[in-house]
Design goal:
Blueprint: E1 2-6, E2 15-19, E3 29-39, H1 41-48, H2 58-63, E4 76-84, E5 96-100, E6 111-115, E7 120-122, H3 129-133, H4 136-148, E8 156-160, H5 165-176, E9 180-185, H6 190-195, E10 200-203, E11 216-221, H7 228-231, E12 235-243, H8 248-253, E13 264-267, H9 274-285, E14 293-298, H10 302-310, E15 317-321
Parallel strand pairs: 8-9, 8-11, 9-10, 11-12, 12-13, 14-15
Antiparallel strand pairs: 1-2, 3-4, 3-6, 3-15, 4-5, 5-7
Helix pairs in contact: 4-5
The structure holds NADP nicotinamide-adenine-dinucleotide phosphate.
NADP nicotinamide-adenine-dinucleotide phosphate binds next to α1, α5 and β9.
Length: 324
């Protein structure tokens, strides 16, 4: 099968299309023929070793000391079940699905085997393969953070970086959970973010949300410039700061930060749960979360897709399509 492969860390050009062995489903696995996948900020970090401040030494530990341990990137996919391994009862050949391989990667390929009882679900019929491929990275990140932060209906939520993959998922899911949403993005993305359901939008090039005197029950930082010391006066009593992107120091200090003011700082990696994946599928099928697609590239142009992600300015997700 064809796959996008990288064998050394570096610029997008380290990725090339190669023929690699076709996988065979083991017991309990499904073999998925991939129709669409994404190049995410997770792929960008694993390819380039661009890590958040203070995490530099952990990059090679996570992805491979001398060279990438997993030469095929890609955290999420949509496609059709090609074959099933022994003991699989959840799916049949021909079923349309989407799936999240998360940090195991391997979705920038024509085929991927995954455990049937894991993060694989039927593709919502109202979404295209391109949209379904882009559900998991942002959606699972935000379901995990909203669970840890115990988001409640009626709460005031501010999303910093509302036009990216994670931010655009945060806006839609917060709305779905009944929150009153304020979104922060650049002027060019104000209309997009309002269309996603934000009640109020702040253009960060014109106003600093921390200077307005407004207070929020929850602040979601997907940009890495809204640490606790900057936002503490914008958090209501018992407010929570969700540090989706932060430095090593933020992670270390999270358990202590905010204690005096009865705030909570929640940081660290999102941990995907199977029941949350099924919930994500149901929310999307109900029309409450439709991933935003920035641009779509065929697999042959995956290097261009990596370049687009590296700008840090994409709107939603960069999708890569395969086959028909
Ligand atoms: N903790 C976890 O488990 C976890 C999980 C997933 C992702 N992440 C991290 O979360 C980060 C965001 O991921 P993503 O995929 O959503 O990235 P992305 O799609 O590249 O989005 C980044 C967004 O930041 C916005 N932005 C840039 N400067 C800004 C500023 N000064 N103020 C407000 N917004 C600004 C950009 O919008 P404009 O063009 O409008 O400025 C862009 O849409 C990544 O660093 C990723 O590594 C962490």
């Amino acid at each position: 099968m064809r796959a996008a492969v990288y064998e050394q860390y570096g610029a997008p050009e380290v990725v090339s299309i190669r023929d690699v062995p076709t996988p065979t489903p083991q017991d309990g696995e499904v073999l998925i023929r991939i129709r669409a996948t994404t190049v995410s900020t997770g792929d960008w970090r694993a390819r380039s070793l661009a890590m958040p401040p203070g995490f530099g030494p952990f990059g090679r530990l996570a992805f491979g000391l001398r060279r990438p341990r997993q030469p095929i990137l890609g955290t999420e996919l949509s496609g059709t079940i090609e074959a099933i391994g022994a003991g699989v009862h959840e799916f049949r050949a021909g079923d349309e699905v989407f799936a999240f391989a998360d940090a195991k990667f391997g979705c920038h390929a024509e085929l991927r085997c995954l455990p049937a009882s894991g993060l694989v679900a039927r593709k919502p019929a109202n979404l295209s393969f391109e949209q379904a491929a882009a559900l998991s990275f942002g959606g699972m990140t935000m379901l995990s953070f909203f669970r840890r932060g115990a988001l409640a209906s009626g709460e005031r939520v501010l999303v910093n970086g509302a036009s990216g993959t994670v931010g655009s998922a945060a806006v839609q899911l917060a709305r779905h959970f009944g929150a009153e949403v304020t979104a922060v993005c650049s002027g060019a993305n104000v209309d997009l973010v309002r269309a996603l359901g934000a009640h109020r939008v702040i253009d960060y090039t014109r106003a600093d949300f921390t200077a307005s005197g407004e207070r929020y029950d929850m602040i979601v930082d997907t940009v890495g410039n809204a640490g606790y010391s900057r936002v503490k006066r914008s958090l209501a009593e018992h407010g929570r700061l969700l540090v989706v992107l932060g430095g090593f120091l933020d992670l270390l200090l999270a358990p202590l930060a905010g204690r005096i003011r009865a705030h909570r700082v929640i940081a660290g990696p999102a941990l995907a749960r199977v029941e949350e994946f099924d919930r994500l599928a149901a929310i999307a099928a109900a029309g409450a979360f439709t991933p935003v697609i920035d641009q779509t590239y065929p697999l042959e142009r995956i290097v261009d897709a990596h370049h687009r992600v590296e700008t840090g300015r994409k709107r939603g997700s960069v999708v890569v399509t395969l086959g028909a």
